[in-house]
Write a structure and sequence with these properties.
It is built from seven helices and nine strands, in the order αβαββαββααβαβαββ. It is α/β, with parallel strands linked by helices. The strands form three sheets. The chain has a five-stranded mixed sheet with strand order 5-4-3-6-7, sandwiched between helices. The chain has a two-stranded antiparallel sheet with strand order 1-2. The longest helix has 18 residues, at 101-118. 33% of the residues are buried.
Length: 243
């Protein structure tokens, strides 16, 4: 499918939730943990979760309806790693849905790439099935970002499973400290299947966002008669009776 450009234009002014966790030496919109002696003022931004109250400009905030913080040129670039689940379970669209789950997942992954580009942050991408289908290391260049968007647009939910635990484990070993990891999936895994990997990411001070994509038909389950449920990944069938 082609990416929804209207949607991406609407999200371009959002920000990645880096807060004060970014760590590096390049200019961006995330406060550095290593401030210079006389940082140069860059711009104002709305105060968000993770920002330090010490950065609030109280004079400007008093004239507005929201809190404003001051950004400086010595603030650093956030590294964001995005994982997109390409398993068959996402190839589902209920009667009342306008898109498949995978199309929504594609848009979510693309949104993080676009927002990262606007902020001059570096983004990396993994298209994931039973193994890595495509992998892009984190980079902030325009060409790299466009290749990631093209890969997301061309991706298809054709895999029999998703090795999400293995991929999060790799991120826990390789992601820079104080970076951001984003996983977009329907998370049909064992309830505790990701707990060790998430604990390892937290120990490395990597913020992890798990974005679960579900169709309304998967949560409502408004069946009155017996139905046969089919596992989209394995083809296994199971008769389900609502009573």
């Amino acid at each position: 499918m082609g990416l929804d450009l209207e949607f991406l234009n609407r999200v371009v002014d959002l920000e990645l939730p880096g807060g004060r966790c970014a760590d590096g030496v390049l200019a961006g919109v995330h406060p550095s943990r290593r401030r210079g002696n006389s940082p140069e003022f860059k711009e104002f931004r709305v105060y968000g979760i993770g920002d330090s109250p010490r950065e609030i400009d109280w004079r400007l905030s008093a004239r507005r309806d929201d809190l404003q913080i001051r950004l400086h040129t010595d603030e650093t670039r956030l590294s964001c790693r995005i994982v997109l689940d390409c398993s068959r379970s996402l190839d589902f669209q209920g009667e009342n849905a306008k898109r498949t789950k995978f199309e929504l997942a594609q848009m979510m992954a693309a949104a993080f790439i676009v927002i990262g580009g606007r902020q001059n942050d570096s983004t990396g991408l993994t298209l994931l099935g039973e193994k890595r289908l495509n992998f892009f290391p984190a980079s902030a260049t325009v060409d790299h970002r466009q290749r990631q968007l093209d890969a997301v647009a061309k991706a298809r939910p054709v895999e029999k499973g998703c090795a999400l635990a293995d991929e999060l484990g790799r991120l826990a070993e390789s992601a820079p400290r104080h970076s951001l990891a984003v996983a977009v999936s329907d998370f049909y895994v064992a309830p505790d299947g990701l707990r060790p990997q998430l604990a390892a990411l937290a120990a490395r001070e990597v913020r992890c966002l798990l974005l679960r994509v579900l169709d309304p038909a998967e949560t409502a389950l408004e069946w009155r008669d017996p139905v046969v449920a089919v596992d989209l990944e394995t083809g296994v069938e199971l008769e389900v009776r609502p009573d």
